[in-house]
Design a protein that fits this description.
Aminopeptidase, Glucose Oxidase, domain 1, elongated, alpha/beta, 14 strands, 15 helices
């Protein structure tokens, strides 16, 4: 019955496509057999899961630019060498450093009580002992942007916007605007600081951190996220009478701190300069241990590549594994990679990043040329035994490879189920115990299967072979 459902689903997707798109490229029987062996091997693989467990246990939280992130780079490079990867390197770069030292908030009146908060990345310090001021509440960023200076001046802004729970995480884009921009808008209107309802979907009493916008917003003012129950409490109090809050944030910063990308390869047997890039980000926020975001992604791509390494012979093209640094603070590792390898981007045949937790992959999206859609359909058919549906041709690829996609590199997005992802994302509850081993291994199987196919088959996915720009 499941196979029949897959056939009907696949046929319905193809029905609206052009004749070229409806074609399915042929996969030779020996290659198809290898793909299926990789899928089966992934279902019992422990390499990736152990990598994630060790990263989140031996290193723990890995704040960008910190000593812990440096230890994670060295540890990861040593592990990749021990696993047998070729050309394991660390490519260093520097970043602006930010770290929380102290954070607290409390209602001063009308009903004194503590509030559960966490400072947002890029927040500046308040004065020693904090700021005490009346709250002014807005339902979203648009309301704050439209507010008069007189309404905001001398007050602490409170943005009380809830995030919508979705399978694909699409609710995040709207909700994250307040985190990025609240401090700038507040200070521009004479406000003192900004509190936001956490950008997340859980209702437990812990807050979600995350980065404020860089550029003009960097260092704009003090800003923190409230746990959802604390945001509800403030709203109830404000419906009764005006509320005064004390907010205390103390941070440390540095203009230059070390970071880096860890890169390992399985050298292709025929065309080693052509590469299939599969990546993750090695850094994490400091509240949890960065298991879901993104220790799991690193374990998934390392485990998948290790399965390919153990085949009787290497695939035709090189498999490149990139563990990006400093993603959480502005995709800085992704930009560093794109800049350093600008002259070689035409050699990246395909790229994908695992950065959406460890739940099951349910759909496989691509971003290929029209002529390459038969290859997309072939890959999607090969993944159907894993319960993965064919997707669209509008893949983003992932945060750290978004700049590669803009430069013309073909990308795929194995869409994970993100229904619960933002219950854990950027919180103290992002820990290893939240990973389901069976779901994790389905991801390993998926990445091993499509990466091997792209590396072994002489397929080109590019929309434009001649025009490549670099950042």
């Amino acid at each position: 019955m499941l196979d029949q459902f897959r056939f009907v689903l696949f046929g319905s997707v193809l029905a609206g496509l052009s004749a070229a798109a409806q074609e399915v490229a042929e996969i030779p029987a020996p290659v198809e057999d290898t793909v299926q062996r990789l899928i089966v091997a992934g279902s019992t693989d422990d390499v990736g899961l152990t990598f994630t467990e060790d990263l989140t246990t031996r290193i723990g939280p890995r704040l960008a630019g910190s000593e812990a992130e440096a230890r994670a780079r060295d540890w990861a490079a040593a592990e990749l060498k021990a696993l047998g990867f070729d050309s394991v390197t660390i490519e260093p770069f520097t970043i602006p450093y930010w770290n929380r030292i102290e954070e607290s908030a409390s209602v001063v009146s009308p009903a004194p009580q503590p509030l559960t908060i966490t400072a947002l990345g890029g927040s500046t310090s308040t004065s020693e002992g904090g700021i005490t001021a009346e709250l002014v509440r807005f339902s979203n960023m648009a309301e704050l942007n439209a507010a008069s200076r007189e309404l905001v001046e001398g007050k602490i802004v409170f943005i009380d916007e809830k995030m919508t729970r979705t399978q694909d995480g699409s609710g995040y884009g709207m909700a994250v605007r307040k985190r990025r921009n609240c401090a700038t808008a507040t200070i521009d209107k004479g406000g003192l600081a900004c509190l936001i309802r956490s950008v997340g979907t859980q209702t437990a009493r812990f807050p979600h951190t995350g980065m404020m916008a860089r550029g003009e917003a960097e260092g704009a003012g003090p800003a923190a996220a409230l746990s959802p129950p604390d945001a509800d409490q403030l709203t109830r109090l404000m419906s009764w009478q005006p509320v005064t809050v004390n907010l205390n944030i103390q941070v440390e910063t540095s203009p230059n701190a070390p970071s880096g990308n860890v890169i390992a390869e399985i050298t292709g047997r025929e065309t080693p300069d052509e590469k299939i890039l599969i990546g993750c980000h090695l850094d994490s926020w400091d509240l949890g241990t960065g298991a879901i975001d993104d220790g799991a992604g690193c374990g998934i791509v390392v485990g998948a590549a290790k399965l390919i390494m153990e085949l009787e012979e290497a695939p035709r093209r090189t498999i490149q594994v990139v563990l990006y640094g400093s993603e959480e603070v502005g995709l800085l590792g992704g930009h560093a990679y794109a800049k350093r390898h600008a002259a070689d981007l035409s050699n990246i045949v395909l790229a994908a990043e695992s950065d959406f937790g460890a739940d099951r992959i349910w759909r496989f999206d691509t971003r290929f040329s029209e002529a390459a859609l038969p290859y997309a359909r072939a890959i999607q058919e090969a993944l159907q035994p894993l319960g993965i549906a064919p997707g669209n041709n509008e893949a983003g690829g992932g945060p750290d490879i978004s700049m590669l996609a803009r430069s013309g590199v073909p990308v795929v997005t194995p869409q994970q189920n993100g229904w619960d992802y933002f219950d854990l994302h950027h919180t103290p509850d992002d820990t290893f115990d939240k990973i389901d081993p069976a779901d994790f291994r389905q991801n390993v199987s998926t990445y091993a299967a499509f990466a091997y196919l792209a590396a072994e088959m002489n397929w080109s996915f590019r929309k434009d072979e001649t025009a490549l720009s670099s950042e």
